[in-house]
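Q&A FORM
Asked by: J.P.
Topic: structure of Methionine--tRNA ligase

PROVIDED:
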Amino acid sequence: MKFYVTTPIYYVNDIPHIGHAYTTVAADVLARYKRRQGFEVFFLTGTDEHGQKVYDAALARDKKPQEFVDELVLRFKAAWEKLNISNDDFIRTTEPRHKKVVRDIFSKLIAQGDIYKGEYEGLYCVTCENFVTESSLKEDLEGRKLCPVCGKETKTLKEETYFFKLSKYQDRLLRHIEENPDFILPVSRRNEIINFIKQGLRDLSVTRTAFSWGINLKEDPKHVVYVWFDALINYVSAAPDGFWPADVHLMGKEIVRFHAVTWPCMLMAADLPLPKTVFGHGWWTVEGKKMSKSVGNVVDPLALADQFGTDAVRYFLMREVPFGADGDFSMEAFKARYNSDLANDLGNLLHRTLNMIEKYCESKIQNPKSVRAGHCPAPTIQILNEETPKRVEEAMAKLQFSDALTAIWELISTANRYIEEEAPWKLAKENEERLKEVLFNLASALLTIAEQISPFMPETSAKMLEQLNISGGKIAGTIVKKGNPLFPRLEK
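REPLIED BY: S.T.
REPLY: Here is the structure written out as tokens.
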């Protein structure tokens, strides 16, 4: 009953944006859900602090690299605290515990011949910290050779290096992917990786000598470990005893290749088990345009959380698009979700129900005879109330967070319709016993809703449970404590 989930470790000189938040909130939702199921969970995130672009950025600010990253890492830690991220550990690649494991694995692979010395000459993208093949390049009108991923200009690199025998593990990796359909998800990413591997894997340059900011080799100190080879090992270097292999690596689709090709081959060489699932989700655009610092359209999730509340941001990210597909952010869409789903549907349901219990039943949830005797036909709301946790579980097993929330909101919508159909304000005058049953059913549905949204919206769930005041699952006899509306409606 152990469960290990990771985000990628983020480049420390990035500013936390909606893309980082998307991956991290998804991992947090999964971790919270598994904890609720009774799993012992280890949830890891962190920062990638080595590499040439970090080194260059530090020099440009006249700072020592370690001083530079020590300042920048605080931004990510503050961001995850603001977004209520429940990570169990935060790994930094500059930590001694990480460096030791990287050096140990590197030494093992050198000793067994899976890493060998040579010379590299080719194209390198500093922005992506990635070696680029000539055939994959883009070219602009000025004839500059551009990285196929980020579009930035590449540079020719020639230096002594150590190579990892990536090609040695090509056939074994293909067999593993074919024998384990859930190893790479969604299916579209799996197909892309299979096609890439079948084109032939080349041995990978895994050290640099052009700069000193990185983990030096014990065997050859002028060499520092290539940033991706260094960074990927974090998943092992931080794992407590008994937690490896990871159950799920979550990441954006642009780095799936490193996690689904380079990383498993490294693990095979090190004689370590492979992670169970590598899941590459889609990208977020902003009103149809790619997010870019130069364009000035980078969405700050912390500013959104300050203005609209953390749970509103978490809800939007998990609900707006199917996990795995690309998404588009706009303030119009965000506010529409907030007003429709959170203010009108969820917030209004809780406030109306508790208001009626307070008004008609002196704030006490009554135990109706029909429910107690068990002879009343179950209305749709009772049936759906029982089915919703099962539907959520099915969606979460497939990492379909949006589908899980859709199932919960179907119960919310049904409960709101139930109020209109039953009209408790009329039953208060005509049928007191039926009124008790309706309010009991609504309170029961709200309890289910509060429990099911807890991984997605932990603060909202806690507020709902506080107002419902239900303990031990015993609904009848509870004195509710109506509070302020959860999500005040936004003005247009």
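FOLLOW-UP: The mean pLDDT is 93.
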